[in-house]
VWFA domain-containing protein
Amino acid sequence: MVLSLSDPLTSLASLEYGDPNQSSILAMNCLMVQLLPDIPNVVSSKDMRYEFVFLIDRSGSMEGDNISYAKTSLLLFLKSLPMSCRFQIIGFGSDFAALFSDLPDEDASRSCKESVETKRLNPLVLHRHAEAADAHLHLPVN
């Protein structure tokens, strides 16, 4: 199936209800959101400064393999970040802990990213195992 939009450069949301009589993915509701803000003076991507915040769930639901998958995924994301970006890693469960006390400048992020790539950095938030019964996402987001 091919879908074509009359105006593909607009923001949109599309909801597809699942069929409760089906099993697995066919029973699930699906939501697609496309956000394309109208930015009149877009600078070239090499001149843009990016900031990424990674939120890592350390609640009880992440016990076992789930926290290992999160660690592996985070390391892959960190290795893939552009050198000129800044990033922060926040682990949350019943409390939260940030890798940096504030978003670091580009030089600190570059140094941290290089440490990740050479396996010298194991962020505090990843050393901790799944610990809390509840996930309190509102704490680090506030």
About this structure: Residues 119-125 have pLDDT under 50 and may be disordered.
